[in-house]
Amino acid sequence: MSSDECQQIPRLKASKIRNHRSKISLEKEEARERRRNSVELQNTFFLDMQSTYMRQPNYFNGLPADWRFNLEIVQQPIRARACGYGNKDYRSISPPIFIKLTVFNSSGPVNIENVDSQFFQLHASLHDLDSANCTTVWVKSSNPQHSQEKVLNLIGCRSEICHIYTDEHGIKGLWFIYANLGVRTENDYFLRFQLFYLGWEGFLNMGSSPIKELASIDSAKFKVFRNKQFPGVVECSQLTKCFAKQGANIPLRSEPEKVKNTSSEYEIVETNDTSDVEKSSSSSHKEKDRKGKYNSYSIENLIHRN
């Protein structure tokens, strides 16, 4: 092999490397372009769908214009134990709050099978009974080290989606279940629930079109107690047990009897201790609270954006 040929070998390798890198760069750019085109196509299609339904007189926000919405609080909040400013001692409002949604049109109640329930969301806010001011968002911390910080007073999942459940009488309905709300500070409060529809004919409305309140309702007054003054949680209702059997995430109080698994056999142990249930429900609350953050904050952002 001549000296000229030997000198050309590194040049050929460098040329192949440059060509390979150029090819990879071109492929990446083409992939990015395809993704951009796909996103633009989806956005265009979504906007076209919106324009189509906006031109139709019988539709408003993706829903029939003659639909009316009624909220009924079937199970009201009664009392709660103040959670304080830590995150370890989490206690829910008792009993769980059950709100029924009924949809009407000009002919009467709409069959729930004709209602796309997945995009209905109910948003809860906390109000001071004395001043009727909204106290959901911020209260000042009593900790001197965090005196300038503000924390959420109403904690838990403040936005819940609609579910189809059967009540204790065997009647199907559209339900919102709040079993994961807690309050940090003691006082007399009431809750306000606002209904929103986040869909648009099967699509999720990310704020590109107005999201308006469809209905609202206020709960009865309930009291938040200090730890030592709290009289205890309310006994589970038949409706609570009915929803829990259908898969609703509702922590239930322990029964007077429970089965204890020993090394030799199962034995019945008489107990009224609810500490195990409370601990498990507390960990369940923490997990659901983490999962519910996106849900609550997303609906709040969409509402305030509009």
TrEMBL record:
<dbReference type="Pfam" id="PF11754">
    <property type="entry name" value="Velvet"/>
</dbReference>
<dbReference type="InterPro" id="IPR038491">
    <property type="entry name" value="Velvet_dom_sf"/>
</dbReference>
<dbReference type="InterPro" id="IPR021740">
    <property type="entry name" value="Velvet"/>
</dbReference>
<dbReference type="GO" id="GO:0005634">
    <property type="term" value="C:nucleus"/>
</dbReference>
<keyword id="KW-0539">Nucleus</keyword>
<keyword id="KW-0805">Transcription regulation</keyword>
<feature type="domain" description="Velvet">
    <location>
        <begin position="64"/>
        <end position="253"/>
    </location>
</feature>
<feature type="compositionally biased region" description="Basic and acidic residues">
    <location>
        <begin position="276"/>
        <end position="292"/>
    </location>
</feature>
<feature type="region of interest" description="Disordered">
    <location>
        <begin position="254"/>
        <end position="306"/>
    </location>
</feature>
<keyword id="KW-0804">Transcription</keyword>
<dbReference type="InterPro" id="IPR037525">
    <property type="entry name" value="Velvet_dom"/>
</dbReference>
<protein>
    <submittedName>
        <fullName>24879_t:CDS:1</fullName>
    </submittedName>
</protein>
